[in-house]
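Why does residue order matter? Because the sequence determines the fold. Keep that principle in mind as you read this record.
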Amino acid sequence: MTFKTTLKTASRTVFLILLFLVSYNIRAINPEKYVTNKASKGSFPLASNSRVASILVSEDDFSGVLCVAGHLQNDLKKVTGLQPNMFNSLSQTEDYIVIIGTLGKSSIIDQLVKDGKVDAYQLQGKWEKFTTQIVENPISGIKRALVIAGSDKRGTIYGIYDLSSQIGVSPWYFWADVPVKKQTELHVLPGVHSLGEPKVKYRGIFLNDEAPALSGWVKENYGNFNAKFYDKVFELILRMKGNYLWPAMWNNAFNDDDPLNRPLADEYGIVMGTSHHEPMDRSQQEWKRYGKGEWNYNTNAKGLSDFWRKGIQNMGNAETLVTIGMRGDGDEPMTEGTATELLENIVKTQRKIIADVTGKPAEETPQIWALYKEVQDYYDKGMQVPDDVTLLLCDDNWGDLRKLPSLDAKPRKGGYGIYYHFDYVGGPRNYKWINTKQIERTWEQMHLAYEHGVDKVWIVNVGDIKPLEFPTEFFLDYAWNPEKWHADNLQDYYHQWVDANFSGQFTDSIANILKLYTKYNSRRTPELLDANTYSLVNYNEANIVVNDYNELAKQAEDINKQLKPEYKDAYYQLILYPVLASANLNELYVSAAKNNLYAKQGRSLTNYYADKVTELFNKDRQLSNYYNKEMGNGKWNHMMSQTHIGYRIWQEPRFNMMPETFKIDAADDAEMGVSIEDSEGWWSGNNDDAILPVFDSFNNQKYSIDIFNRGKTPFDYTIENNHDWIKISEPKGTVENDKNIEVSIDWNSAPKGIQNSVITVIGAGKKIPVQIKINNRNKKNIKGFVENNGYIAIDAEHFSKKYEPKPFQWKIVENLGRTGSSVISLPIAKGRIALTKKSPKLSYNVNFQNTGTVKVHLYFSPTINYSTRKGMYFGLSFDNEMPIQVNYDSDTYIFNYNGKVPKNWESNVADNIKIITAEFQIDKPGNHTLNYYRVDEGLVLQKIIIETENSHLKKSYLGPPESFKAN
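Structure:
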């Protein structure tokens, strides 16, 4: 074969088993559940017999802890209908009480430690850890207590909110109107309950690209981005176990808009920061308001230094990650090219200001340097910052990591972080309207980061917060413990999240809808869709996409009809609206495509589809208006005001714009036309014969013929067929506008081998022949995926065999990808390995009818080479040949608005796929094996298409459906 490449404990166990049997539905989804609805031996009655335990929190604890203890008091009332008493000191006897406090801050907790009631060892020196446990006779006058103790302020707060979550209060009770399920009995199981310490130190979100949705909503409800607004944001972050925020900054300045913003963040324990282009804890808007001179350090060093000094002065002792460095004003490069010496001097100046103002060495104030867009080039070319500075690595704004430290990198005191995106304004096109992110891809990329030692900061751009509720919570959950979620249990997250937010109603069905709509939306963002995205004629692609979306919409609507009324607003926000709106948008564009094509063919249905486009365009407005104006009495007005239809450039249109449509004036008399599947042409009887794709006995295809009317008068048709083994769904009938006919083969009656035949469509005075070709193959000794029409299509997870020498594993990442699932090689930590026949491999059995040159197209998720090493490799071979090393990263690199990226980056991220092609020679027809080998970690394989020299592979967005696999 020749080859070339081109780019393209026992009692406790018994107790837990019994508990599992009693409360299967809960524990099957969340094995960490420690609050149940039934009393058991040793459990604590948080609420029972119309009584609820009081809350005791020392007044000498952090004010934020006292505040959040009040939230627990409210949460218990929402759940039980009973208002717990809350005390700062005990003046009466209580049988049962909840004691809350921070080690070293709460005199009550410290006394419990002194008395040996609470083990301080579990908390001392820990970061954000809490323990929740039952203590007998903790204080004189108290029979039993549930003690929530924290290692620090946030540890205690997380313990409180964890109990709130356990009793059924969702983090989204305000932000998505998730109801609180009423319960009368709440019992806490014995044992020490803890989530341990977080694996990632700082875990946060960035409110960005906030106009028009979030900004409009905030203006209507709060006036501006003030402390009343941020109170809701801080609570949400903490309920999701986050601790870090980059605040809204488009036309806002967190520290300047409301003097209460920063003190409130500090009270809650929220670590504040500023975005990648807002250094020294000052926002871009502050510069516009107070800056003197131009944003240019070469010409205005004093003006900038004075501005930055004021930022550190205003920061005071509030917990902050200070962004250092400098970019151009307005999220632009600072200079043309890299000015390393200039940026190094800027960093030195900034660190001197930090040291001067704080009165302590600069390294004692946490700092980050964001390697965003063009700034990464400074790092790549050797610019160094002090070891205590956290290097904030970034994705490409589309969820693909651009840079990671090497697997054997020397540890840095400041460590590494990631800035990730669920929302973006920029090329190749904005995506701001709706959730298009699969948690599977987020998991895969952030797993890569974690395995490469990136565990200091994880922050994600969440746009307006809504409608990115689901991926945001996953991101923060995963950041708390990246070792909890893996390829084998990741699908459980859908069920856990749905169960928590819809109280067990239709959990499996809703989880499946959530899983599929995010998959479908991830194929191409709505802003990038147009009438040409999916093929109307090849593989029935466009119709399948629309039908799949509409089936999902029907399922979602059926569930909505059966849901308890109080859940309908939450359901509309989290599930129903994104499904209905996405389905509608896809049908809108496909209808526009049909209108455009039918106008060219002169079909009488042309005007129907013009009207259909108008109807669907109006429906989009109705769905958004219901979200904004009617749902929840208009609580979320403006949140769905983002334009998303009719993009022409990267930036959003001012208004949604309906796709172009045409209307025609059809003739009065009937006139027949015929079109066939997999062809853009149409036949009038005056051109060459129509030829359907080849039918073969393995793939058992059904192909369609459209008989359409080019006039206003209906006509009768018949289809002449000389062979009874050719099956026609409707061999005769009447065509008013069009009739879709399905052609298939009865293989038991069909003659063996290759046969040719013809059927003739007769109507409106015309006879239009359609050629039929079949291949009734002998199925004996055929194995694997069978070639048809000159190609073989394989979903990557359907390998025939896998080879996994220890410690390597091939993992199927269910649901990751545009059509099926994906495969990855683990462990990541093993990095690059030498390519040999004994390397980890996946084998795919295939059967060729043709010989000669074959092209193997491998469809990968659009991973960027994040490594400092050259290339990114995998191996390929057929049969027992030596594998050939293929470079996934053979693209040249260019510099554009996104920094240094592969030449084809724009199309890769727009299509959400990267295709690599390799060529081989096949000398004999029959059974063969394609082998795919690991060399480098980090590649995500979705699909394989093999083309022979006689390929009739048609153009489509998703590729052809998977070929038949013979056993």
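The longest strand covers residues 753-763.
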